[in-house]
Each structure stands twice: as C-alpha cells, then as structure tokens.
Write a structure and sequence with these properties.
This protein is of the alpha+beta class and about 650 residues long. The protein has 5 domains: about 210 residues, 3-Layer(aba) Sandwich (Rossmann fold), CATH 3.40.50; about 100 residues, no CATH class; about 70 residues, Alpha-Beta Plaits; about 110 residues, 2-Layer Sandwich (Ribosomal Protein S5, domain 2); about 80 residues, 2-Layer Sandwich (Alpha-Beta Plaits). The protein is built from 19 helices and 34 strands. It starts with a strand and ends with a strand.
C-alpha cells in the first residue's frame, strides 16, 4: 500500500473543513456529510470549534483510495485557517508530501492563502489548487486565477472546463477534449519534455501527462481544478489529481539522527499524552530499539532506565513494533522525551547536553492574560489544566508567578487567548478569575543624539561620582546597546552597564525603553573609596538618563492588519467603528455578490473585541482576518 500525506490549506472560511467532510464521505469513511452550521463535522469536535464554526486544531484522517493507476492510503490533514493558529500549519510542512490549497471563487487569493502558498513553496511541497464554491459563483473565478498568477510569478494551469451540457470536465479523465494549448502548458515548463515531444511526431507518448505528474514536485507547474466541496462536484477528481502528481521526495524531509518528525501533540483520556509522528524511513523492531537507546542514553556508560518508545496504531490504538515510512503513528509521551511539533523526536538529555532552553519562546507574542484561582487551594488544579493546554498547542506560553500567586498565559492573538481560556474552563465548577487581554508596549527613543555629562555628589558635596561624558542616541531597531570609546576598569564598566539597563526598565510612560544606545566618551574616577564612588556613579546614570526619557521617548505597541469582507449595506457602520478605533483604511474593493473587501490597520489594543463587534454590526455576515506583529518596521505609535 502506498501512503500519501496530503494537507489541506486555505484562508479562513474558504471551505477546508467542508472539503475534508466531503472527501471522507466520498471515501466511505463517514455515512453522511456533516456541516459546520450543524456542528457535526468529523474535523471540528471541540466545543469551541462547534460554537464558533472555525477549525482550532489540526485533524488527521486516514482512508484508502483506489485510482486507475494504483491504490493508495491517503492521510488527510485538515489545518486551521485563522492566523492565530498558524504555528499548527508551519509545524506540519516538513512532513507534507502534497498540498491542496483551497481558493474561494468570486474573489482574489486572500491573505492567509497567500501566506501559506509562500510557506509551502519554501518547504518545497508540491501544490494542487482547488477553486471552491463554483456552485455559488459559477464561472466567476477569473480574478482568482489572475491573483494566483501574480503570487506564483507564473501562470497556473486550469485543468477543468464545462462541456456542452454544463457539467465540469477534468483533464485526467477527459484530456482529449481540452485545447491543444493546455497540453503545451503542461510540458512547457521542462525543456527536456518539450524536446521529447518534438521528437515524437506520431504522438504515441502523452507527454502532457508526464508533465502533469512531475511538474508540481519540480515547483514549475501549478495545476488548478475547480468545483464545490458542498455538492461534491470535482472532489473525487481532485483526489485523483493529487495522487497522480509526484509527492515531495522523502530525502528532502528534515534529516536527523532520529528519523521521526513530530506533527502535533494531543491528550486522550485513554492513552494520555501523545504525539502524531511521521517516520522518514522504514523502522523494524531492531531499528526502534536503537532509536530508543539513542534518545534515552546520554553516553555509552549511562544505564538505560527510561521506558522504551511506545508506538500506537492511530486507528486501533494498539501498540505496534514496526513503522512504515510515511505512515503516521502515535507516540506516547514519557518524561525523557521532547516532542516539539515541527521538529524531530528528541530527548531531555539532548537538550541538556546541547544547552538548549526548553522554555524558550519560539514565537514571542504581544498578547497575554493574567489569571488567578478564586480559591488558592485550586492553584495546582488550574496549573495542571493550563500546562495541558500548552502541551497541545506550543503557541501558548505559561508563566507561574510564585510571589503573587498569579499565572500569565501568552498567546498568538486575541482569539487564540479567548479560546484557550474557554477550553481550560470547560467541564468544571471551579472558578478562575482572569484579566482583560494585555497588549505589550514599549517606549522607543526618538530620533536624537544627545551629549550628556552625568555626575552625582553626596555627603555635603564631599563625595562625587566623577563626571561621565556620554552620548545617548537612537538605534536602528528595538535594541539597547552600550559602547565604550574609552578604556575603563571592568568594575566601572559593569557599574555603568547595570545602571543604564536598570534606568531603561521604566521610562516616562512606565514601560521599558528600547531603541537607544549609550556611547561612553570619557570618565575619570575620583580618588577615594571606590565602593562609594561606584554607588554614586549608578545614581548619576539612573537619574540623568531617566530625566532624558520624559521628552525623548514615545509609546509604541503592536500593529494589526485587518481585512474585512462585509455586505455593502453594512460597510458604512463598519467604517465608522474602525474610525473610532483610530484605524487607517488602506483600501476598499468591490467583491462579488454585493460584498466589499476592506483592508485597514490600527494599534492592536484598539482592535480588541473588533471581531465580536463586527458579527453584531453585520448580523453575523461580516468576516474578518487579523494579523498582528510587533517589530521595528511594523508597530503603532500609541501616545506622545
């Protein structure tokens, strides 16, 4: 049996989950097609997914599929579309063999789809495109193809058309009915194929089918099918096309001493914590024993006391002792394992020996919420639940403040945090208090270069810190730097550095100051007690530098880009709400079916609650997508 891991990717609300549901029905995996509106789809099982009608976590489905050119076992991966859950998408890319990118007819390629296309190209994942919702927009997909061509910097090849009776025809099954130009497009990406076709005037070999098979893997051909996930039109043909194209070469997968890639982490009442794992090669019992020894032993002299690796069949949950390349399995967690999605299975020993930090935040977030239990005795209960949430989704980060008894949860966005809190509070009568969502802020030094003389006297002016001459200037980013243009004793340098960084902790607005550099030009240390002198020097720097912040820093925070698809009748009220939030409108474009596509940006703190307000303003019709970032090039000025 040939295994093929296929991921479904798209912008939010483009029909990924509906397509997954239809594929499972066509494959005989389910007896009836569920719907997002009814909350009964196979992919969306969490209460929050059902209530909100969006996918929150990646789901995996395995089923057989028979074609005219072979039998396959498809491992279908349905990914979340919302930007807040993007880490779940990027974590999968190393093991994706083929990608289905779902595009929505009647509009250009939307923002999240653009982003995922770029990521798939960087990961060398072959792509097949499916223009969805043709039952609603019929032939209105030209804008989609034009937009796709702009992103790919090359023309996608449309391989579907309507016949005389109005039914869709697809290239794999009706290639003879397609124009000659389509056949030429399928081989024009390869000089070798074109030359071979010229040398075969009899046409005995169909080089267009060879081009269609090999082009996507080479990253030179982008086939496009169309249809409707809701009605099922084009869905079976789409799967045949995916399986006809060559998959990503396993040799391109992440190489590691441990040939096991972690795709996702889960917790199950019956088996506990486990990871979904992709084997990059066949592993028999002896191979697995060797991998287990490598993971569980720091060196040859260490006694192996850790439990062996336990692999489970994802369908039956029965333990297995051999793995087949590309066949997804479950790996039960144990205390010695590190199962970080997006990387190979590793061990705690490896991280300790390499000096790596397990708590390092791979994707710093400006969004956080502070929580504390209503009853102090429930602290361990809530910590256990929060740690379980972070285990499943490393996009969260948890900090336990022992001194205050509070817990801080960081997330990738407003929606990410809202859903995380709701999930933690499900099915319990215990109470948890939590703050509103906090947004990170800093103070940025304004454009300046200010020369200062810093000195402090004490004991009736009998003692002096000595005069420190320095220049305070802005940097090209959010960094804080100190540079010495004079040779000084190490204890003096240390005193200057620590007091400068301490002065930056709380600026004029009470936030950390960044984007500045202290350049020390000269310093003469007075004679006398060096301890007193260095103490006075710290005071001089703290007082002098902080005094400059009042007029030379301004408050900045993360910026959010927002896209809104809204009925034209509601456009005015949405614009009014964005205006109250100090949003800057970038563009307004007319979309299909009387809808408007609006792009704007605003400080992230101003857009808190906007998604909920949009649903209320538009009676549930409006759709929004938000991307928040906080970099030197991408930030909002909050106050001056």
């Amino acid at each position: 049996m040939k295994y093929r891991t296929v991921g479904i990717f798209a912008h939010i609300d483009s029909g990924k989950t509906t397509l997954t549901e239809r594929i499972l029905f066509e494959a005989g995996k389910i007896s009836a097609v569920g719907s997002i509106e009814d909350g009964n789809t196979e992919s969306d099982s969490l209460q929050e997914e059902i209530e909100r009608g969006i996918s929150i976590r990646t789901t995996f489905h395995s089923f057989p599929w028979k074609t005219t050119f072979g039998e396959f076992q498809i491992q279908l991966v349905d990914t979340p579309g919302h930007i807040d859950f993007r880490n779940q998408v990027t974590d999968l890319l190393a093991a994706m063999e083929t990608a289905i990118v779902v595009l929505e007819a009647g509009t250009g390629v939307q923002s999240q789809a653009r982003l995922v296309i770029e990521e798939l190209r960087k990961a060398n994942v072959p792509m097949v495109f499916f223009i969805n919702k043709l039952d609603r927009f019929d032939e209105d997909y030209l804008d989609t193809l034009v937009s796709l061509e702009e992103i790919l910097a090359g023309a996608p090849v449309s391989l579907f058309q309507k016949n005389e009776s109005g039914k869709l025809e697809f290239y794999l099954t009706h290639s003879a009915g397609f124009p000659k130009t389509v056949k030429e497009e399928l081989i024009s990406w390869s000089d070798e194929l074109m030359i071979s076709s010229w040398n075969d005037p009899s046409g005995q070999i169909d080089f267009s089918m060879i081009g269609l098979r090999t082009g996507p893997k080479a990253g030179k051909l982008y086939p496009v099918y169309g249809g409707s996930a809701k009605t099922g039109e084009g869905v079976r043909e789409l799967l045949d096309l995916v399986l006809w194209t060559e998959p990503k070469d396993p040799k391109e997968l992440t190489s590691s001493s441990c040939p096991l890639l972690v795709l996702s982490r889960r917790t199950d009442p019956s088996i506990g914590r486990y990871a979904v794992v992709y084997p990059t090669k066949d592993l028999d019992q002896a191979d697995l024993s060797k991998v287990s020894r490598v993971l569980n032993k720091a060196d040859a002299d260490r006694t192996n006391t850790d439990p062996p690796l336990q692999f489970l069949n994802p369908d039956t949950e029965e333990e297995i002792s051999e793995l087949q390349k590309g066949k997804l399995v479950l790996l039960k967690n144990n205390e010695g394992l590190i199962l970080l999605p997006g990387g190979p299975v590793s061990s705690l020993l490896h991280f300790e020996s390499e000096g790596e930090n397990l708590s390092a935040d791979r994707s710093p977030s400006p969004f956080s919420v502070v929580m504390e239990p209503e009853e102090s005795i429930d602290k361990e209960f809530w910590l256990c639940r929060l740690e379980g949430l972070v285990w499943e989704d490393p996009g969260y980060k948890l900090t336990n403040k022992e001194d205050t008894g509070q817990m801080v949860l960081l997330g990738r966005g407003e929606l990410h945090l809202e859903i995380g809190i709701r999930r933690v509070m499900e099915r319990t009568e215990k109470k948890l208090r939590f703050s509103s969502i906090n947004i990170a802020k800093i103070e940025l030094l304004k454009k300046m270069s200010h020369k200062v003389a810093l000195e402090h006297r004490a004991f009736e002016d009998q003692k002096s810190s000595g005069a420190l001459i320095a220049v305070l200037e802005d940097t090209a980013d959010f960094s804080k730097q100190i540079a010495f243009e004079v040779s000084l004793p190490e204890e003096v340098k240390n005193s200057i550095e620590t007091s400068f960084l301490e002065a930056c902790l709380h600026g004029f607005y009470g936030e950390e100051v960044t984007g500045l550099k202290l350049r020390v030009l000269s310093y003469e240390m007075p004679k006398g007690d060096s301890v007193i002198t260095l103490t006075l020097l710290k005071v001089a720097i703290l007082a002098g530098v902080k005094e400059l912040f009042a007029s030379n820093t301004y408050l900045v925070g993360p910026l959010t880009e927002v896209e809104v698809m809204v009925d034209a009748d509601h456009l005015g009220v949405v614009l009014s709400d964005l205006s109250r939030r100090s949003a800057k409108v970038v563009s307004i474009e007319e979309a299909v079916a009387g809808k408007s596509h609006l792009k704007a940006n605003a400080p992230a703190q101003n857009l808190l609650g906007f998604s909920g307000a949009l649903r209320n303003m538009t009676k549930g019709i409006g759709i929004s997508w938000e991307r928040t970032a906080f970099t030197y090039e991408f930030h909002a000025v909050l106050k001056e």
